[in-house]
Each structure stands twice: as structure tokens, then as C-alpha cells.
What we know:
The chain starts with a strand and ends with a helix. α2 packs antiparallel against α3 and α6 packs across α8 (222-240). 38% of the residues lie in helices and 22% in strands. Strands 3-2-1-4-5 form a five-stranded antiparallel β-sheet. A three-stranded antiparallel β-sheet has the order 7-6-8. The protein has helices at 81-84, 87-103, 111-126, 134-148, 182-185, 198-209, 212-216, 222-240, and strands at 4-17, 21-28, 32-38, 57-63, 70-78, 171-173, 178-180, 193-195. It is elongated. The site of zinc ion (ZN) has 7 residues, from α5.
Amino acid sequence: MDETYRTKAIVLNRRPFNEDDTLVIIYSLDKGKLELVARGTRKIKSKLAGHLEPFCLAEIMVVRGRQYDYIGAAASENCYFNIKNNLAKIAAASQAINIFNRIIKPKQAEAEVFKLVKDFLDTLNRCLPVMVDQKLLANFFIFKLLIKLGHQPELYHCVKCRNKILPQGNKFDLAAGGLICQKCLTKFRSKNQLTISQNTIKILRLAEKSNFRELLKVKIDKKDEKEIKDIVGSFLNYHFF
Length: 241
Ligand SMILES: [Zn+2]
């Protein structure tokens, strides 16, 4: 086994550890989520600390240790300063990254998941604050993440009768994981079914297939925005919390 290795990583969180050290949680391209010790990073003169701030994309050299693995060196590739200079963007990035950190299992690398997190941060960093509700972008991230983690919602056929979804009277069934038609709702009504408009159905279908940059171009009114946040939040809670 190698004593050291290098990997590209996104910093998810960090907290004080011992007197001078920090425990840094990263999502790495090659090893997935890892907890690493960054020595001396609580000292004022630390050169390492600046490269290990939350949301930073960095190239990290990991040194294997007996009890913990250590960060031997780190060079930030993107610190996402436009996110850090805007409160709404910080709130959206924190919401997305905190949820990601809570639901992603340790030591399971997945290049597509890494790309999704990076794309989200890139888009949030670049977009004009007036262009989009930042929290909505975070919700699209969570929706796409749930799909990558195997919770693909059924948005085209009724989860009960399998008939094609018609434009009216549908609901989103959390337990069955998708849309339920008006006809089936008369037989299978439960508290785990949320109201969903035809517009929201279209937006979620688009969110499933499109990248974040394309989603920024979609005009979404306040009512649909609220519905999307409710459905994504409830879908997340139903499966993970
Ligand atoms: Zn049906």
C-alpha cells in the first residue's frame, strides 16, 4: 500500500481537532468522502489552512497514518470567491454541501457525483445573483444527487397503474417514488402525497436531464418554486432523515 497519494477533492467541512490541528472532511475524486487531519492549521502562520476552507476545490496529498490519515500538502484550484462574497450564495452552498455531507457514505468514490458537486459550485460561483433563486439551484442539486444515489423518481407514468401521466390531477407519491394519477388517487390516497402542478412536473423532468447552466435559463414563478422546494425537501427527508 502506498504511503502517500494525491487526489482532487472538495472540502465539505472542518472542525478544530487537538490544540493546533483541524479535522477536514473532503469528498475526493478517487476515494470518496474522507476525514483527514490537517496538522498545525489552527496556527496563524499555517500555509495549509487557506487551501482547506469549506467548498474549496483542491489538489490534496494524503499521508497514511496509523490512527488518522493526514493532509501532507494542498493546493487550491478554485476557492469560489464569488460564493464567499455573497450571503445568498453562501447560504445556498452551505445548505447543499451540508446535506451532501450528511447523506453521502464514506469511502465510496463516484466520478459522476464528484462532477455534480463541482458543476453545482461552478454554476453558483458564476451566476449573477439576480438570475436565479440560489436556494432553488441548491434544490436542483439535491434532486440530481438523489437520482445519482439511486432514487430516480417516476415522472412519466403513474406509479400504480403505469398509464401515461395526463396533464391534470396528479400528485407526487413519496413512498412509491413518483407521480400518481387522478384515477388511482381515488383508490390509493395517503398523507405521503404532495400536490404537483403540470408546470412543476415539466421543470422536474427538465432538471433530471439538463445541466445547471441550462436550468438557470428556465423561467420559474414563485408558486412553482415553492412546490419544487417542498417536493425535493420531502423526497430527501422521506429517504434519508
Ligand atoms: Zn394511475
